[in-house]
Amino acid sequence: MDSDNIFTTQYMTNFQQEWNNDQTIPSTLSSISFNAIVGYGFPKDEFPKSLIVIKNGIVEEAKEFNIENDKDLILDWDIRCSLENWKYYFNKGLGMSGLASGYALGSIKFKKGNYLSMVKNPKMIGPFLKSFDLMGNVYKNNSNNN
């Protein structure tokens, strides 16, 4: 798999559907009135490859990042991993220990977002970890990923 097969608009639309259909993420984030623009990408890139817009726990928009239209957006979270690490997390999941070690070792980078406040808040950390499972589902269900 190369980086062109993840974070495409189709990939992100599928992720949005998984997220919004999940039994826990929208309701948990809605209970804390969570709103955010979250970018996903690779560490060396200036801009993320894709983003989601979350309003009251629901993903209202999911798409590839468009430099012309989106460069002035203020991201609340910007999560970066190497392609190798994204693939690893998509296939194996993340989990709390994976997040802690990934953060400590630099496998997961937060260009934006308050990592420490997230891990201390059960209503944020649970959905964050589960979102990696959902991204993994999309990755595994993509017929291009043999």
Structure description:
The relative contact order is 0.19. The protein has a five-stranded mixed beta sheet with strand order 3-2-1-4-5. The radius of gyration is 14 Å and the shape is globular. Helix 1 packs across helix 7 and helix 4 crosses helix 7. The protein has 146 residues and is α+β, with helices and mostly antiparallel strands. Strand 2 and strand 3 form a beta hairpin. The chain has seven helices and five strands.
SS strand fraction: 15-25%
Q: Are there runs of 5+ residues with pLDDT below 50, and where? A: none
With strands numbered from the N-terminus, the spatial order across the biggest sheet is: 3-2-1-4-5
β-strand number: 5
Number of helices: 7
Mean pLDDT, nearest integer?
92
- The radius of gyration over CA amounts to 14 Å
What is the 3D form? Answer: globular
> How far is the first residue's CA from the last residue's CA?
8 Å
Class per helix and strand makeup: alpha+beta
Q: How do the helices and strands follow one another from N- to C-terminus?
A: HHEEEHEHHEHH
Main sheet specs: 5 strands, mixed
| Share of helical residues | 40-55%
Quick summary of this structure?
The chain has 146 residues and is an alpha+beta fold.
Structure characteristics:
146 residues; 5-stranded mixed beta sheet; alpha+beta
Describe the secondary structure blueprint for this structure.
Blueprint (H helix, E strand, L loop, with lengths): L8 H13 L3 H6 L5 E6 L8 E6 L2 E7 L2 H4 L6 E4 L2 H10 L2 H11 L3 E4 L2 H6 L1 H20 L5
Parallel strand pairs: 1-4
Antiparallel strand pairs: 1-2, 2-3, 4-5
